[in-house]
Design goal:
The protein has 870 residues and is mostly beta strands. The chain has six helices and 44 strands. 4% of the residues lie in helices and 61% in strands.
């Protein structure tokens, strides 16, 4: 046995291993490889051998590496790992035979603990060992055009986040974020973009920040994943404590080399889409770019049946609607990461979008009165143009202390729109087919600007592996400006005349200041974190056409949070969380002005609105199943004081001088929402996996303080989602998805609007009334099939059909005692067929794209440690 192998381990850390990594075929140096030295030690508690990392480093640009201050006695394992090459392992040690002979020692009695022997001379070379050129072999499966990886689970859990992987959701390809949300467990989105998470309205972010984009303006093919946080901690905005958070994560890659995709598609209504993504990693820079263009041709049909009792005599109105929307949207995103050092990164991102959405509505109406029937037909056309821009500068600094980091960011989100709507209403004597008796012409011209400014900094300090402190500050400013002028055609002058009472011009600012601190730790099998957030805010508004001003200031409020989990046997876990949140009324909800932009959907604000406060608790049971499968059972409860709810009242229309319904807002005393959710992800067979979600919930509103309120009974409701994925021979994949929602009481929270007021939806956009109605049961089924082909499945074609049975109809019933009853129905784009093509490309070239990656190193060390054996 060579001297040193298996010898007693000493404490003299004076040895050094060094060498050079080269490509076994080309002889070129291999840079940025992870080089580790490991050895086996006996665990004091178990008495068993375990691998321990002694030293680790990375090869330099010329392929060289050096491992210094190594104990000279003992046997080590050298491991080398890098993407694109096969792992390398070799057993090494210091040969002390020559050193022992200097003093006449025998190999098993070498003792250098008191210093080196005199006149050691050239024998010291044994402690400075050159390992020579180490040849690495390329892994061809990683260096080909596409890297083949294991299939990501459709839904996975990471801490308090539930992450939905969009890449494998083929039923939404070629669509928008609105289509993606249909498949996300726990989330319901209707055809008017109203999103609920567990029967409450969540905050919607893009890449972790508020956005001015609407869901139907974000292409689904640019989305990487959807993150859902149902009961977020105090480090998140206080408004998130009411309905949770849905974060849309856009595609971005930091893989070495270059990779990307191009795609195109069409649908059965004549819409199309085209786009692509690319990422390039070069030295200290990482570039990513995304682009998308999609054309829209959409149709919504519906009807409204209303019985009005406030008019004398009573009237019954039946309306039928068809809204055809033509539009297009161009979307682009550019990101740059600059790795200043291994511990500091600066990232800059710019996002741009522009387009037009031009709905044309045909509405026919019949109103029956004791005096006879009234027939009218309204045609409205709207030209909407919108532009969005977003810029983010982010800095992240890691400290030598493991887990310690500081981040800071600044974000700007801006949007502006221009709108021109024309309404022509023709009145008939004896039915729509008869001659016109008279007509009414209206024109609405508007524009607006919405700007978000965000500054944020966060700091994490770990006290130990189990305990850490997190703290942060955040400031948000929102500036809104809206100009909407209404004109009515004057027959006597043959000109349009401005109606000041029906024109709305305003500007406002909202500022929110926040700070938080959280502490997390573990005691035995329990882990916990406790946090406290403080927020204050204020509004400043002005009606620019009248000069009227008003201010609302909310003092500092505290929002605590608490989370505790307990590990159980057999891969089980229990979790409990609590959070306090706030719902602030928006400027538009408080605006003391009546908006006549749509004569069939007149709205006005309520300056007396107060914020609502919500206390949320959640209990989770998690069972990890074999593989990436799991069962998650959640029980949740939310209590809100001063619930902000839409409300319908009777008033006089200043344009027609007649009684009509106004959609406004008020504070109900309180609301209670509670429910249970079951989520199961299961690989039934090798070729069939299922993601199922069932949500059973109930809710009540105490609206006894609202005059004319119609109390409604508590109603237990439920909705379920089932996503089936089938992997078939010949590289075919089928996805079959279904959603069912039972009859549900309308219990709205404040709609945390991401956008601004703009026309164009016509009478199809009706206000929901939280204390006066319900949503009827509905369901739909989607089907998609994908065929992958070319080498390494680089290309694919998918065909999908949405709502194949034409059943995703939304029917809303609302009523008010002594005033009216109303049924309102919508059906949008049933049986829509989409055909999409995608081609992925990429190459990992270790000689061209060189960059030390801290995350890759740590993961490489972890993997090598787990695979280390003697």
């Amino acid at each position: 046995m060579p001297f040193g192998k298996g010898a007693p381990q000493g404490k003299m850390n004076i040895g050094r291993f060094y060498g050079k990594l080269i490509n076994d075929k080309t002889g070129k140096p291999v840079a940025t490889a992870t080089v580790m030295l490991m050895r086996s030690e006996t665990d004091a508690k178990t008495g068993k051998k375990k691998p321990v990392i002694v030293k680790g480093t990375n090869s330099s640009d010329n392929g060289e590496f050096s491992l210094d201050e190594i104990p000279v006695l003992g046997t080590y394992k050298l491991t080398v790992t890098i993407i694109g090459y096969k792992p390398y392992e070799k057993e090494i040690y210091f040969d002390l035979s020559a050193l022992a002979k200097l003093k006449g020692m025998s190999p098993d009695k070498v003792d250098i603990s008191q210093g080196m022997p005199a006149n050691a001379g050239t024998a010291l070379n044994a402690l400075d060992k050159d390992l020579g050129d180490i040849k690495l072999t390329e892994d061809e499966t990683q260096l080909e055009g596409v890297t083949v990886t294991a299939k990501m689970p459709a839904f996975r859990l990471e801490g308090e986040k539930k992450i939905f992987n969009v890449e494998n959701n083929i039923v939404s390809q070629g669509g928008t974020a609105q289509d993606v949300m249909k498949s996300v467990p726990g989330v319901i989105v209707d055809i008017n973009n109203n999103v609920t998470l567990r029967n409450a309205t969540p905050l919607i972010y893009v890449d972790g920040q508020p956005t001015t984009l609407q869901l139907d303006q974000i292409p689904s093919d640019m989305i990487e994943s959807i993150e859902v946080i149902t009961n977020p901690s105090a480090k998140y905005d206080a408004a998130a404590g009411v309905g949770g958070i849905i974060n849309i994560v856009l595609k971005k890659s930091r893989k070495r080399g270059y990779n990307g995709d191009v795609r195109a598609g069409v649908d059965s209504r004549g819409g199309y889409n085209a786009g692509g993504d690319i990422s390039i990693r070069l030295n200290k820079l990482n570039f990513s770019a995304n682009a998308m263009l999609f054309d829209i041709n959409s149709q919504t049909t519906g009807y409204t049946n209303r019985s009005s009792y406030y008019e004398q005599p009573n009237t019954i109105t039946d309306q039928n609607n068809i809204v055809n929307t033509l539009g297009n949207m161009a979307f682009g995103r550019l990101g740059v990461d600059y790795f200043i050092t291994n511990r500091m990164t600066i990232s800059a991102t710019g996002m741009f979008a522009a387009g037009s959405f031009d709905p044309k509505e045909n509405l026919t109406s019949t109103t029956d009165t004791p005096g006879g029937a009234i027939y009218d037909k309204r045609i409205s056309t709207t030209d909407n143009s919108v532009k969005f821009s977003s810029y983010t500068l982010n800095m992240k600094h890691l400290f030598p202390r493991d887990g310690m980091e500081w981040t800071a960011l600044g974000t700007y989100n801006g949007a502006n729109f221009n709108m021109n709507s024309n309404y022509t209403t023709d009145y008939y004597n004896n039915g729509i087919a008869n001659p016109i008796s008279n007509d009414f012409l209206q024109n609405t011209v508007g524009n607006g600007v919405n700007k978000y400014y965000i500054g944020q900094t966060d700091f994490i300090y770990p006290f130990s592996k189990k305990s850490k402190l997190e703290a942060g500050l955040k400031a948000t400013a929102q500036n809104l400006e809206n100009n909407s002028n209404n004109y009515v055609y004057d027959m006597s002058t043959s000109n349009y005349t401005l109606v000041p009472a029906a024109s709305l011009n305003y500007k406002s600012t909202q500022d929110i200041y926040a700070g938080y601190v959280t502490y997390s730790s573990a005691i035995g099998e329990y882990t916990y974190h406790a946090g406290l957030r403080a927020e204050s805010s204020d509004y400043n508004g002005e009606l620019t056409n009248t000069g009227q001003q008003f201010k609302v200031k909310y003092p500092i409020s505290l929002f605590p949070s608490f989370f505790v989990s307990r590990k159980l046997k057999h891969d089980q876990e229990l979790q409990f969380s609590y959070r306090r949140g706030i719902t602030r009324p928006t400027f538009f909800q408080m605006l003391p002005y009546t908006n006549y932009a749509d004569p069939l959907n007149i709205t006005r604000g309520n300056p007396a609105l107060q914020p609502g406060f919500t206390n949320s608790v959640e209990l989770n049971y998690l069972k990890n199943l074999k593989g990436s499968n799991y069962l998650l059972l959640s029980l949740y409860y939310k209590h809100t004081n001063n619930l902000i709810t839409p409300y319908q009242v009777i008033g006089t229309d200043s344009l027609t001088n007649t009684q009509t319904i106004f959609n406004t807002y008020t504070n109900a005393n309180s609301s209670d929402k509670y429910g249970a959710e079951i989520t199961l992800q299961q690989n039934v067979t090798k070729w069939w996996d299922v993601l199922a979600d069932l949500n059973i919930y109930n809710g009540t509103i105490d609206a006894g303080n609202i005059s004319g309120n119609t109390p409604q009974s508590s109603l237990c409701s439920w909705f379920g989602k089932l996503n089936n994925n089938f992997t078939l021979p010949k590289n075919f994949t089928i996805q079959l998805s279904g959603i069912y929602q039972s009859k549900t009481n309308l219990l709205p929270d404040n709609s945390n609007s991401n956008g601004f007021m703009g026309g164009g939806k016509g009478s199809m956009s009706q206000a929901l009334n939280g204390s006066q109605g319900y949503l009827a049961a509905n369901y739909d089924v989607d089907l998609a099939i994908k065929k992958s082909f070319l080498k390494n499945k680089a290309a694919s074609v998918s065909l999908s059909v949405n709502d194949i049975f034409r059943t995703r109809r939304f029917l809303q019933h609302s009523e008010s005692a002594g005033n009216f009853t109303q049924d309102y129905s919508q059906l949008k784009d049933p049986q829509l067929v989409r055909l999409n093509f995608t081609w992925r490309f990429g190459k990992l070239d270790m000689d061209l794209f060189k960059r030390k990656d801290i995350k890759s190193e740590s993961e490489g060390m972890k993997n090598a440690s787990e695979n280390f054996t003697y």
